[in-house]
Design goal:
The protein is an alpha+beta fold. It has a single domain, classed as Roll (Thiol Ester Dehydrase, Chain A), CATH 3.10.129.30. It has 3 helices and 7 strands; from the N terminus they run βαββααββββ. The protein is globular, with a radius of gyration of 16 Å. It is about 20% helix and about 35% strand.
């Protein structure tokens, strides 16, 4: 299944960022099965625009901090879109309200690796994030959903840099159930 740019969802996902740090400008989503099963994958491909760095004078190139910010923006979007469209079975009991409540507090980078082959020098480029694995497990402090991703960025058709990122989401039951 392919989903075109969801402007309303993207705008809502990026609300947690300061306005000058909202780099992801559009995104399409492609689902080829559930990432929790062999061969299943959900992907997003986005367009980015970084008019100026949010933390340093102009370096003249896309750097590791921007790589991470752009990754996070695609990651937050892919999880939100997966909840909205029912693309990842392990998130099937989440509502969009659950996502908004948990977007920042329950999602963690566990292992982050990036590699740069050549510089991206413009403020306009593409990025693609592939969600390639989803496993549920006990994290010692409650259930976790472990997500494996691959990411790449480029200006032309060939990726200039890439990475692999493993994430953990606290997968506790939503807090909408009253507690004593």
């Amino acid at each position: 299944m392919e989903f075109p740019n969801d402007e309303a969802l993207l705008e809502r996902v990026l609300r947690v960022y300061k306005p000058h740090c909202r780099y992801l400008t559009s995104v399409t989503t492609l689902a080829k099965g559930d990432p929790g099963e062999a061969g299943g994958q959900v992907s997003v491909r986005g367009r980015f625009h970084i008019p100026e760095s949010c933390y340093i004078d102009d370096t003249g190139h896309f750097n590791a901090v921007e790589f991470n910010i752009c990754f996070n923006q695609m990651y937050y979007f892919i999880v939100a879109k997966s909840v909205k469209e029912g693309l990842v079975r392990a998130l099937s009991d989440w509502t969009m309200d659950d996502y908004w409540e948990r977007q920042l507090q329950d999602m963690f980078l566990v292992d982050f690796r990036s590699s740069f082959r050549r510089a991206i020098t413009t403020g306009h480029f593409w990025g693609q994030l592939d969600l390639t694995g989803a496993q549920e497990r006990d994290g010692g402090n409650g259930p976790l959903l472990i997500l494996n991703t691959e990411v790449r960025y480029g200006e032309d058709e060939t990726a200039a840099c890439n990475g692999k990122v493993r994430l953990a989401i606290r997968n506790h039951k939503p807090s909408s159930v009253p507690t004593a």
